[in-house]
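Fold sample X.
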Amino acid sequence: MDPDKLEKNRQRLLQEIEVDAFETRKRTGRRKFSDKVMSAMANVPRHKFMAPDEARFAYINRPQSIGHGQTISQPYIVALMTDLLDLTPKDRVLEIGTGSGYQTAVLSSIVAEVYSVETIAPLADAAGLRLKNLGYENAHVRHADGYEGWPEEALFDAIIVTAAPPRFPEALTQQLANGGRMIVPVGRPHEPQTLYLCSKNDDGELTKKKVLPVAFVPMVESLK
């Protein structure tokens, strides 16, 4: 794809994300996203996380299929979920649902370490290789059951879930450090889903806040 056209499409997408952020400000509490999040959105090459024949769609503000019944999330949603976590450069983040690795790369551009769990083995293998080849050395990917998280590396400063479980996964909430934040879409398959922002206080108590309606693929147990 022509590099100039690619860059034009990328810039248009960034403008669309800014518009979406402003239009949803009453629900999300964010009229604009932080500079570090928008910088990550600008610099991560989304087209590298899609099949070559799908790259022309990479900078359209909508989810795209990546095979195996999974999707690469809508860029606005990626930016929103990342921004709501209020990440810092020292943070260690758990991601559930690596997919193609795009959200992983965005996180890796902001924080110290990302531990990403993917339930579908071919996706996990491809994403791990892709992230390594693109230079995201602080991204760690493994094939496992997302409901179990990554207990060997807990506790995490933030947790992001990019598929919808029917209820809050207890194992994940236990792997969130006190003072940490978790963003997760919750809802049963074929029913309305809601994006929740959860915060754990210094006493280990978890509070949950509804953000906005969303549509994610279901969170499933580990597949071969």
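Fold sample Y, listed below.
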Amino acid sequence: MSISRRSFLGLIPVVPFLSSAQPSPPASKNPRFPSHDDESVREIVGVSHGNLARVKEMVTARPALARASWDWGFGDWETPIDAASHVGNRAIAEFLIANGARPTIFTAVMMGQLAIVKPLVESSPGLQRLRGPHGLTMVAHAKAGGSAALDVLKYLESLGDADPRYPDVPLTEAEQASIIGEYSFGPGPSERFNIAKGPRGFTIQRPGGAERNLFHHGGLVFNPPGAEAVLIKFEGDTVAVEDGPLITRARRI
């Protein structure tokens, strides 16, 4: 079942295109050292959607950030070049590649590189069905590439299955009311999340975290974007978040 344009656009997390930011904390104050600090990683991925000046500033100062990766939730990892690729920002993508970023097939799709995309798909049948960050498809990346990616778009559309969509089964009013609310999965004040319905559909969000869309399979079973193997199942006032054998249970407050 296809999803609406509103829901499809809702796959993309809301990120600030910051023009300036506080300096990154020194290693002695970074609890994740020798890993990059979370603030810098989240910012470089965020600004790589559309703020070339800030991308240049950050990567020039710290070149390794060109290959950083941020998990928006449930394993929906995104690198700076992933961000530039799915919004069609060729200038940022080219700058990142010149500074050590690793382009993916989704980058090649967005940039209209048919000579790269076609052999990869032909050598790995079914590759065209692969989803990128936020669950965005190859066709979506080709459309983001505009006129430069028209030949790639035509090729992908000719395959017939390069634009898989998440299920979007409608919920009754009673079903909607039964899942909306705040849930707790531990004693701490931050060990909770909120299920809400907004203009982009149903979402799940922890305090201070990114808002993630939910896609309904039916029977009050959902998946978040970019992590179709993760299932979120509601039953009464409880919810189970199943990530393979790892199951987190929460109860509505």
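Sample Y note: The chain has two domains: 5-159, 173-252.
Also: The radius of gyration is 19 Å.
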